[in-house]
């Protein structure tokens, strides 16, 4: 079995690893989208409650009600900060997975290029062998 054919198996395994890394990257990016949406929702809720507090404040609201609503708004702000930290963690994970995918992609590409080079060399060797056989046949014929 030719070396290039044997290395084709290695290339296939490298492609599988690359595909797995690409799937992991897609999953991380999907989770990052989910986390970003949560942050947007928290910001929207906070804005809604701030608007509610302004509206109720203009109409006259008890101090106790104002404190409860303001406390809830503060909790939303704290949650948004924690959510941002979570998002930052997902961004770091995304970069790690992207780096891994790029490494595997380059490795597979290098293997493919090496196999192409070997295939060309194998063809050249076969051509030389064929030419040698043809030359021998021709020289035998004219003897």
UniProtKB/TrEMBL annotation:
Q: Which GO terms describe its cellular component?
A: bacterial-type flagellum; plasma membrane
Highest taxon listed in the record's lineage: Bacteria
Query: Does the entry feature the keyword Transport, yes or no?
Result: yes
Pfam families (UniProt xref)? FliJ
InterPro entries xref list:
Flag_assembly_chemotaxis_eff, Flagell_FliJ, FliJ
Keyword Cell membrane found: yes
Localization per Swiss-Prot or TrEMBL = Cell membrane
The UniProt entry lists membrane topology as: Peripheral membrane protein
- From its record, what is one biological process in GO terms? protein transport
Q: Which residues form a coiled coil?
A: none
For this UniProt record, give its keywords in alphabetical order, as a comma-separated list. Bacterial flagellum biogenesis, Bacterial flagellum protein export, Cell membrane, Cell projection, Chemotaxis, Cilium, Flagellum, Membrane, Protein transport, Transport
The protein's matches in NCBIfam families, at most eight in alphabetical order, are given as:
flagell_FliJ
Per the record, the similarity remark reads: Belongs to the FliJ family.
Mind telling me what this protein is named? Flagellar FliJ protein
- Taxonomic lineage from the root: Bacteria, Pseudomonadati, Pseudomonadota, Gammaproteobacteria, Oceanospirillales
